[in-house]
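Q: Structure tokens for this one, please.
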Amino acid sequence: MKAELTILGCGSAMPSYGRFSASQVLSVRDKSFMIDCADGTLFRMREIAIKTNRLNHIFISHLHGDHCFGLMAVLSTLGLMKRTADIYIHAHPDLENLLQPHLRYFCNDLTYKIFFVPYNPLQSEIIYEDKSLTVTTIPLRHGIPTCGFLFKEKPQQLHIKRDMIDFYQVGIKDLNAIKDGKDYITNQGETIPNSFFTTPASPQKSYAYCCDTAYSEKIIPIIEGVDCLYHDATFAENEVLRAKKTLHSTAKQAATIASKAQVKQLLLGHFSARYPHVSVILNEAQTIFANSIIAEDKKTYTF
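A: Here is the predicted structure, written as tokens:
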């Protein structure tokens, strides 16, 4: 799985210094997923030409305005673009009650259908699944019910050694069984070990989004070993008391989680407007977890 993550906004509640509030688009194979949709998301999408023809699912972490105020603009504009494919919004159950009156008033002639898919923010569960990946909720520690999201590729089939397949003249039915790890039995009844025909499958790729959360080691078993972790790093360490009060994280706390979860890369985001430059955030994180990088609006990260 090759994944591309485009940051539409990596700021916190107060947009500043070229940073919009939280929103991003994860593109995996032939699908795109929006994660949070703050005010300004539509502008950023148009500015950097985000394609919407493969965007069918929107995941909202919680119902603070800096994570969902942009939804109406995006949904309305998709109607103006004469979209016909359905949109699925995965969110706290209250979001449907909040948005439906606005949709009826402003968007009663949409050319596509909107389906609300509620999840329970208090438990970790798979809320989306297709042939190639799953999306699992990650309960976070914040002032209101909040979830992160784990995007994880399903196990891949083994790679085939074509010369061995040709040598034994393996048919399609047996070939699929070999890809699934089974041994091959010849017409003469001889069993050929699977390792003669295969090499290990590509590792499962994964991405975890944990924005707007206080330090919480409860998420570690869920995100352990992910290829990329996007984690709340609202404050530098000198504001650790403010982080505790507002139920956000410092850069060092984000890095500690990354280290304990043994993730491959940490992407820091949700920066407070008090930081015109976030070098202090990066430096503090890297003292604990070396492979920490800073999220930037309009930038795409590949993993």
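A few notes: The first strand starts at residue 3 and ends at 9. The radius of gyration is 22 Å.
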